[in-house]
Amino acid sequence: MPVPLLSEDRISQLPPRAQEVVEYRKSGLSLNHIQGCSLGCGYCIRHTYGLWDENKPVALMSDAQAVEQLVGHRYFQSHVTPIQVFNRATEPFLPRVPHTFAVLEDLDERELTNHVLVITRHQLNEDDIDRLDQLSHIKVTLLFTYSGIDDKRIEPYPSHVAAESLKLMSSPRIRKYRTVLYWRPLVPGLNDTDEHLAAAHELSKHADATVFTGLFYRDEIAAYYKANKIPEPYQGTARRKIVPEELEARVLEAFSNSAALFRKTSCAVSYVHGLPDYNGHYGVRELCDICPLSQLELCAGAHRTPTVEELHQVASVLPDTRTLKVIDITDRAALVSGLESEQPRYFLQHTLGFQIHDELHPHREKRHGRAEIGWTENLA
């Protein structure tokens, strides 16, 4: 049964970003017309959208209307734009959210071949295997969020559920969808013991690939931690995920014999479907030192540095790139300025399959686009 549909008056009272059903994020154009989640993860990005207190899913519009808004969006390109479904406002496989399959099936019926990312930590079942395997066009990747955190103030819904779901959904030898162990958030002193790392390594053997990443520790999340007397993991907050240098080194050591460990979501998603990275990370070569050779060859073959003219030509179709300035282009990335938000930057990046960096948010060498917290100065 569909979740309740909010009235227009009620929708108008939501925080502005919560009213935005389609939003571009680095890993894809994100569809979120279902909002509200009962899992209660303390680090949830819902804090930053003013949605934390909404624990019962509701709909801002019908599934059909939402998909129309998605494919009609100025940023959407058929067969090109990666899509994320319900990745910021609800858990897509809650029993009360039948809308996930409705969206997937609608997209598939349109014969679109776009990547579609579905992030979950809920229990899945055999019926989900059958239904997902009936999708014949879209490239579906299930990313199972697993942390191993046992502090119920931070993660009241146990990690072992996601682990079992990953094993179940990865078990068919032949299937059309792909699975990724989304090992996150890794936080020093919380879930980074040798035992935690060994458990994640063992679980990774069931997935098609593994991505590891840290905590989005934004101001709103820090305020929640303080209000609930949860130990603060860092002294400061950051706009990017925090993965300290020492923690990354320990992860790489624990996974030294892994065949498919990645630092970036898009790298793993592209790999499991046998395609080059749609975010063009190949130019940032220190990212690639843990990638399988076969994937390096794919990405190298697809890597092409655009000209200034080509970048402006791609940008010309958008009204929100009129003030774009191209500062520099190297084999590594294009450095730009003048964009009002990051959303058009992602459009340019996915269209060109090449890294686009904003002058206001520099990418430090070896930080891998992460926060500065926990890194030594000699890596600057």
Automatic annotation (TrEMBL):
The UniProt record lists the keyword Nucleus: no
Keywords (A to Z) from UniProt: Iron, Iron-sulfur, Lyase, Metal-binding
Source species: Lentzea jiangxiensis
Residue ranges the record marks as coiled coil: none
Protein's name in the database: DNA repair photolyase
Stretches that traverse the bilayer: none
GO MF: iron-sulfur cluster binding; lyase activity; metal ion binding
InterPro entries cross-referenced by the UniProt entry: Aldolase_TIM, MJ0683-like
PANTHER family: RADICAL SAM CORE DOMAIN-CONTAINING PROTEIN, SLR0285 PROTEIN
